[in-house]
Amino acid sequence: MLEVRSLSVERGREEILHDISFVAGAGALGLLGVNGAGKSTLLRSLAGLLPPRSGSVLIDGADVYEGRRRAAASRQVALVPQDFDFPGTFTVREFLCHMAWMRAVPRRSSAARVDAALEAVDLQRQAGRRLNTLSGGMARRAAIAQALLADPAVLLLDESTTGLDPVQRAEIRLLLRSLAASRCVVLASHIVEDIEQLATRVAVLHHGRLLFDGATADVAGPSGDPARAGGLEAGFISLIGGDTA
Amino acid sequence: MRTLIRRSSTVGFVPVLVVVQAFCLLQRGTPWLGEWDWTADWAGGVTVVTGPLLAGCTAFEVLRWRTAATWSLLRQTPRGGHAAWLCALPVLVIGVVVHVVATASVLVATAMAGGEPRIDTGFVLVVVLPVVALAAAASIGAATAACWRSLLAVPLAAAIVFGLTAFPDRLMLPDVLKVGGTTGSLVGLTWDSRQQAAALAVLVMVSVFAVVVMHARDAVRRGPASRSIVAASAVALVAAVVLAQSVPSSRLRPSGAPIRYACTAASGTTVCLASQTSRQLAWLAAQIIRQSEPLAAIGVRLPRRYQQVVPYRRQPDGVAPILLEPDSINARRGDARRVPDLLAMPALCAADTGEVPPPDEVFVARSAISAWLSVRNGLSETSDYRVEVFGEWLGQTAPDQQAWIRTTYAQLTACAYADVRLPESVVLP
ipTM of the predicted structure? Predict the structure, then answer.
């Protein structure tokens, strides 16, 4: 389980995230916000890469920023960054083997985990191909595969379908839906359609603040507000007051 | 690690490293071939060029890994703390392997050429120091790229390492990154163990400091512990530099160990060369015996022992000096035309190494005897010396020449330089 308590993050003197709190269990949590809302910063902070000014991030009760428990917590969370630019001379299998080591997967089970991850993202036949020869969709699946190696409780995905064609996006969505069945998947995106189709729960970020945290249907549904009757997109725009800058 | 090495961008650069290594090793020919210590030292000197290259390669490789997305991916993992050095290590391994293979190759070649393998502390350090220097260069490259994430870090890292290696005095730093490359024979010399220890300390601390800076820069939290470690490593580096300033800057010092000679004796003449540089002993002994025959034939009393002059060692009395040319000291065969010069100097006298040089007459007399021998041995013609002050004398009849040679050779052997008189036909300008 992912628990975020009063998280505030600064970069220089600028506050990027302000007093963010939410709890998420198994299932897909959509993180919705315009460009610059703080989605990627929040994901990096959840991944243990951006220490907060205040607040905490707990995964199954272990703080990702607390010295002794940090290692245990970092095994339970995996980040799939927005871009995938791992050195392209590696084959898919080599990349996954290296990441298995980085993710502290025991050596004896490493090969089996790599095979399982390849199977999970349906890249078995591409295992021997170099990363720089993969299509955008395949590269994205390889990036997701590395996150699955240590079987994390929390999977953080940053704009996972950006730049993909409709078929590839559909494939990735299918994959993420299956992954969300057994773990917490936090999916940051500014593509409302992805969130709408994948997430049962949505957190709306705007200017570093959490504007909404609840069921996707509550953003998209009427709930007494006529402006939010036009689906998730209309509800989202209504929530941020039309401020898309 | 094997995958990291195989997929490193530096793999494509290996042929360049090999060519540069070979060029640096062979650019002056192979005067070191056959002399164990000189070979090891010369091989280490290649790091003056390969060190900056490796620093640039490391910076490039680190930049390749440090793209925002890949770096987030790596650093987020439980072993993310190793990411900083892990991407630099394959480059260092490749550089060290190329260097070690090149060094081993030239040492094997030297051993096959007759060089006596000699493994002591000085030798071990002179072989290890270049590897540590490469590690320091790679660390500087990695740290430069970590601190300045631009492609300009590549030439900058190379320039920093080259500056520290080639111009330490201008930077008011000890000359420790230069860990080899002596251009002359090491016979009679040995490596200064204090200088080697200081170099090792500084190089290790440079590497440690660079790695610590890199880690501190990447640390998720830069707390007091992180800052303390950076400060402690900086203090240790400064201490090592100060220590290095207090030891002699010269890498070599006169050896106190007895010089071992390899000798050969024939026709009552013994010829000895230092064991380290004895590759041309058989050839030289044969030449001395054969080319001195014209002197023996006219009744000149020749030295019974010829021995190589070793720097910082006193030549024993009554022993003729052998001064070998630095470029051909380890050649299997020297230049036969230079043997008459050697034979024309039957003793190394105090005046030859003192502050007041011998009279000009001595130099002209040696030249005249050398020319006479050269002509008698068929190595040159009388006409070749027409312009020399003794040109006319060389064309005179044999009896007049022989008497002067006998007298003068005895004076040169006895170090009676003041008694040396030139023939009447030879007038000094």
Answer: 0.81
Residues 6+ apart with CB under 8 A from A53: A8, A9, A10, A15
pLDDT band for position B396 (cuts 50, 70, 90)? confident
Q: What is the Cα–Cα distance from B255 to B188, expressed in whole angstroms?
A: 5
Of A82, A98, A102, the CB nearest to B3: A98
Tokens read off for B102: 């090149």
Closest in B70, B78, B82 to A71, CB measured: B78
d(CA A53, CA A2): 19
CB A113 within 8 A of CB A191: no
Token output for B90: 């394959």
| Residue-level pLDDT at B84 | 79
Exposed e or buried b per residue across A57-96, where buried means at least 16 C-beta atoms within 10 angstroms of its C-beta: bbbeebbbbeeeebebbbbbbbbbbbbbbbbbbbbbbbbb
Confidence of residue B341 (pLDDT cuts 50, 70, 90): very high
pLDDT single digits (tens) B295-320: 999 999 999 999 999 988 888 888 99
User: Do the chains contact at B220 and A51, CB–CB below 8 Å?
Assistant: yes
Pair of tokens at residue A6 = 């009063």
Among B64, B68, B77, the residue with its CB nearest the CB of A103 is: B77
CB atoms within 10 A of CB B275: 18
Average of per-residue pLDDT across B61-78:
84
Q: Does B72 touch chain A (CB under 8 A)?
A: yes
Q: Chain A: residue nearest B71 by CA?
A: A86
CATH 3.40.50.300 fits domain A1-76+153-168+186-245: yes
Task: Enumerate the residues of chain B whose CB falls inside 8 A of the CB of residue A74.
Answer: 76-78, 80
pLDDT at B69 over 80: no
DSSP label of B181: -
CB pairs A-B closer than 8 Å: 74
Rounded Cα–Cα distance for residues A168 and A144 (Å): 14
Tokens of B159: 């320039």
Instruction: Report the alpha-carbon distance of residue A30 to residue A231 in Å, rounded.
Output: 15
Helix, strand, coil distribution of chain B in percent, nearest 5:
60, 5, 35
CB contact under 8 A, B78 and A103: yes
**Any idea of the CA torsion for B207, B212, B217, B222, to the nearest 10 degrees?**
-170
Q: Which residue matches tokens 């490193």?
A: B8
Tokens linked to B106: 């030239």
Domain edges within chain A: 1-76+153-168+186-245, 85-152
Region for residue B299 given its phi and psi (left: phi exceeds 0; alpha: psi -120 to 50; beta: otherwise): left
Are β-strands A14-24 and A2-11 bridged in parallel, bridged antiparallel, or unpaired? antiparallel
Determine phi and psi for B378, rounding to 5 degrees. 75, 20
Distance CA B87, CA A86 (A): 12
Report chain A (245 residues): mean pLDDT per 10 consecutive residues.
Answer: 89 85 89 86 89 88 77 82 83 92 90 91 89 86 88 88 76 83 88 83 88 80 55 77 63
